[in-house]
Amino acid sequence: MTLPTPPRDDGEEDVKKSKGPITLDAKQHSFEFEFVIPNNLELPSFMELFKEGMIRYTLTCVHDKAHTLGGSSKCEYNVPIIERIDVSDSRFHVPREEIREIPFEALMMGDAHGHGHGNDGFVPKAIVRVNLPKFGYVRGEFAGGAWWGVSIATWSR
């Protein structure tokens, strides 16, 4: 996997020192992230009214794969932003982990001459794991921390 810019801190010196795109080895890599819910916007609370409609706020993780058909995969996670309730209540402080498996199906298509890459049924894949310490947020709240993060593990043969 090639990153357009290096992650803030992956614990690997060559990754930290890189000034441009880097290629990651097929192993697990973790990237911290943070976000702020703007407090100057009039955002309605997250809700799902089934047939009547819904309001959702989404965190999108894009896994951009160079040199493949389709180019990138993405995972989306709902981030409930809730107003007019006490989000300090313990019910909203349950850690949340979302895991998505992304197959690299484009890698199995073969080369320009129609030759396959030895497809024996194995499809290379990445596992994307996002950890959030709670699931209720309000406007203006800083949403970052030492154990927040996105973890990407890739497998190939």
Automatic annotation (TrEMBL):
Residues 1-21 are annotated as: Disordered. InterPro entries: Arrestin-like_C (IPR014752). This is Arrestin-like N-terminal domain-containing protein. It comes from Jimgerdemannia flammicorona.
